[in-house]
Each structure stands twice: as structure tokens, then as C-alpha cells.
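Data deposition worksheet. Section B asks for the primary sequence of the deposited chain exactly as it was used as input, without tags or linkers unless they were present during the calculation. Section C holds the resulting structure in C-alpha cell form. Section D is free text for depositor observations; keep each observation to a single sentence. Incomplete worksheets are returned to the depositor.
Section A, Depositor: J.P.
Section B:
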Amino acid sequence: MKNPMINTNVLHPQDTHTHDNIVKTVDFREDTNNTLELLAERPQVQIERFVKDNIKLSKKIISQTVNVPVTLNQEVLVIEHVFAQPNAPHDNLVSVVTNNVNVPQLMVNGQAITLGDTPIEIPLLQQIAKVNIETIVAEKVQLMTQNVSHETQIPVTLRHEELVTEKVEYDEPTVLATTHIPPEDVNLVSK
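Section C:
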């Protein structure tokens, strides 16, 4: 003889393992509430924050050679043969005056210098360039971090319970209770 039974799968929200079928017998005549609770799973999302990468920042010096254009002046000695004339202007820096063909004279800055066996030194000026290096702020770099959001899909398998009803056929009816009716309460109907 079989008993009326209902098959239900009991699920626990925190458990993700496979459950065996649990057979539960419910007698609806004794249960005054007549309510079954069917369980279902739902996802609970937990977001963790962790250090993914470390970025090292450093400065390095890169040297390069550049050509700086500079214009420089220098003096050169110009010797010009000028024959003596009575009222000749002496505008030249250096000029040769030949009053006597055998004894030439030089005019240097307005002064007459006689050329002879003794050498004459005339200073010539020249410019040179000296380059000083100055350090300036060439660029400012601002460092910051920025949060970038992106959507992602996380596959989650969820389970839920459904009510399964099954009709059970009995081989022999089961007598649950017997009620006796007194003969005086029995109404006989004749045909």
C-alpha cells in the first residue's frame, strides 16, 4: 500500500551544490495553513577593490648637442699706401705715408709710426663667445588617477523550486475512519 506523497527539492540560497531529491509527506487535513514555501535563488553581487598594477615614475636626463648661431667681430690689419698730400685727412685707422721713399711711415690711430728695423706691434681686437647654460621649467606634468567604468556580464546559474503534483493510485483503498450509523437513522426506500 502506497502513501500519498509530494516530491519537493529543498534549496538553500547560500548552497550551490547539487541536492538530492528529498521526499516530504504532507497531510493537508492536519495542516491548517495549507501553505507551501517554494524557494528560489537570487544573485548577491560583491565588488572587491584590489591593487592591479604599480606604476613607477622617474625622471631621466637626455643630452643633445645643438648649434647656437652667434655673430662675432674681429679686427684685421689693413695697410694702404697713400702718397703725401698737404691737407689730406687722416680718417683711416692705419695708413702708410711715404714722404721719403726709403723711410715709410704708418699712421696708427692718428699717430705717425716710422717703419724701420724694429718690429711694430699693433693689437687687433677679436670677439669670442661664451655660452652659459640656464635651467628653466620646460614643461609641467600633472599626475592624477581617474576611475573608468565599464559594464560586464557575469554568468550566474540560479535555481528555484516548483510545485510538482502527482496522482498516486492505490492498489487497495485505505480506510482512514469508520462511522457507524444507528439503524433508526437509516432511511430505507422501497422500490
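Section D:
DSSP finds no helices and six strands in the chain.
Residues 38 and 161 are 5 Å apart (CA to CA).
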